[in-house]
Write a structure and sequence with these properties.
With 106 residues, the chain is an alpha+beta fold. It has two helices and six strands; from the N terminus they run βααβββββ. The relative contact order is 0.23.
Length: 106
């Protein structure tokens, strides 16, 4: 059964691996960037699990603008206390779990 939960630093290697399986080297989040996102926006970085294995992720900060900009991928900031727009910087599912509706459970 699939489960969505907030990611923790213990998930770092798994979510970085999924990023690199799903995105090109230029587009995949680095280990450092992913670690920063988990620390700064922990309430907006989610891991998708099946049988205790991380099979997907979704993350993105709350931002003031209605659209994302390139700087968000490298310069992540804490979410504002109130207001803003929810963005999505990453949505990825391990290729072995794709076409199994993992991204539809949220």
């Amino acid at each position: 059964m699939l489960k969505i939960r907030t990611a923790t630093i213990k998930d770092l290697s798994d979510v970085v691996k999924i990023e690199h399986l799903c995105f090109s080297k230029e587009e995949a989040s680095t280990k450092e960037s992913t670690e920063k996102r988990i620390y700064l926006i922990p309430d907006r970085y989610f891991a998708v699990e099946e049988n205790s294995a991380i099979v997907g992720l979704i993350n993105g900060p709350v931002i003031q603008t209605r659209f994302i900009t390139d700087d968000l991928f490298s310069d992540i900031k804490k979410n504002p206390a109130t207001g803003g727009h929810q963005s999505i910087l990453g949505l990825a599912v391990d290729p072995h779990y794709q076409k199994r509706h993992c991204s539809k459970i949220a």
